[in-house]
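We now fix the convention by which a protein and its fold are recorded. Here is one such record, which you should read through line by line:

>
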Amino acid sequence: MKTLKIALLQIAPCGTLEGNLEKGIASCRRAGGLGADIALFPEMWSNGYRIYGRPVEQWKAEAIPAHGEFVSAFGVLARELHMAIGVTFLEQYKGGPRNSMVLFDRFGERKITYAKVHTCDFDVERNLTPGEEFYVAALDTACGEVKVGAMICYDREFPESARILMLKGAELILVPNACPMEINRLSQLRARAYENMLAVATCNYPGSVPDCNGGSSVFDGVAYLPELEGSRDTCILQAEEAEGIYLAELDLERLRRYRESEVHGNAFRRPQKYGLLLDEKVEPPFIRFHHDAPPPTGRL
């Protein structure tokens, strides 16, 4: 059985870039000691997603380069531990900072540099530069090659995010997160896994971090098995609120068999019927949110 071990680093930030680097490295070492193939950080680990309730220029100044010392240190560590690492950070970028993740493979090579496409423009994230594309990379692991994609937090609200990653071949989507994980958001993640027949691994901050509550999760996307009369629970891990490293084991062989025979994902799509999705002129049948209106309930 090809079991991919995914470590969700549900850890609290330290308040400084140096502290987060040190704690991040120590947490990756612990994950490596547990036999993890991939370690994933919560959203914007470099500054602990501390962009709310602070002057914009203050937190913008905390942006760091994608090829700087902080991010590169995890590439060196990935090679040392022979473990893939998805590290998140506030990225210094020419058009303004981005909410980004770099995925290093177990040889320390950069496989994905992804910036959050769906920034929360109804709130302070309007000061971030959105990403332009969704990426999938073939990740060499001890279990063999795995097709991995990424989306960040609010990206999960849009079915198109995961659908594009599926169409690009993703078997696993990594989702750094920084918000309360409640029944509806967990249901979104469950749905993204179910409808695309892929695994979705989400890493959140623990309950000790303001406006977060742990609940990191992995959904394996396998809803039906031949030996079962009905459907099964696709959640193979859901963390409690406490800080910790949570390890999930994803059965890749079962997922791949399922994708070969089930009816979801790309099996019976009719893309010629979906043209309206690309029409930016369509006015939705509800009131558009305006920046001068009160922010929606619950951070995304």
